[in-house]
Amino acid sequence: MRRRYAALTLLVTLALVSCASLGLENVIQPPRFVEVDGRSAQLRLLLPSGDRPAGGAAVRLWTRVTNPNALSLTLTQLTGDLFIGEAEAVQVEFPMGLPLLAEQDTIIPLDVSLGFDDIPRLGEAALAALGSGTLDYRLEALIGVDAGMLGQPTFGPSTILQGALRVIR
Q1: What is the sign of the dihedral through the CA atoms of 34, 25, 148 and 103?
Q2: Could you give the CA distance from residue 1 to residue 6 in angstroms, rounded to a whole number?
Q3: Residues 127/58, Cβ–Cβ less than 8 Å
Q4: What is the phi/psi pair of residue 9, to 5°?
Q5: How far apart are CA 142 and CA 113, in angstroms?
Q6: What is the rounded CA–CA span in Å between residue 145 and residue 63?
Q7: Which residues are registered as beta bridge partners of 41?
Q8: What was the pLDDT predicted at 21?
Q9: If DSSP codes are grouped into helix, strand and coil, which group holds residue 153?
Q10: 55-79 confidence digits (pLDDT tens)
Q11: Is the torsion defined by CA of 140, 129, 114, 58 positive or negative?
Q12: Which residues pair with 32 in a beta bridge?
């Protein structure tokens, strides 16, 4: 019985040392983001106002976030650049704190509001897209998670979403 216990202890110790030597990035996989079928990404044009004298846009991206890990995580960080059409990138930081259950997914909206006075080329692109009704987009982001006792790894930056925005007046 003692030999079995000693062998089991040795195996567990070797497994833990192996995991530690691989690094946290190899133990925990980043959450995956995909567009949601039936919920199109939208760019809604906003009229000029006191906050946005040149007008602006509100962008809503629907995403399915999947946790591929066998342990639950909390999505703590999602920051990066949103590229819309040919306009320069818009820096984005989404408020997080989203619990992700082990091997489960959830659907969330990601909302961005911006003024055309900050990014004039976006206004031009949005107005030009009214005829076709769409603009291409790409979201490149750094993802951070809280994995409890395993730490708080970050992943990226990488392209996590891309597709077409439906332009709405």
Answers
A1: positive
A2: 9
A3: no
A4: -60, -45
A5: 20
A6: 17
A7: 165
A8: 44
A9: coil
A10: 888 999 999 999 999 999 999 999 9
A11: negative
A12: 66
Determine the residue type at 136.
D
Structure tokens at 123: 């206004």
pLDDT over threshold 70, residue 150: yes
Question: What is the predicted pLDDT for the residue at 60?
Answer: 94
- Contact between 39 and 62 under an 8 Å Cβ cutoff? The reply is yes
Residue 115 bridge partners (DSSP): 56
N residues, the chain: 169
Read off the pTM.
0.78
String of b and e for 59-90 (b: at least 16 CB within 10 Å)?
bbbbbebbbebeeebbbebbbbbbbbbebeeb
Structure tokens at 117: 């006075």
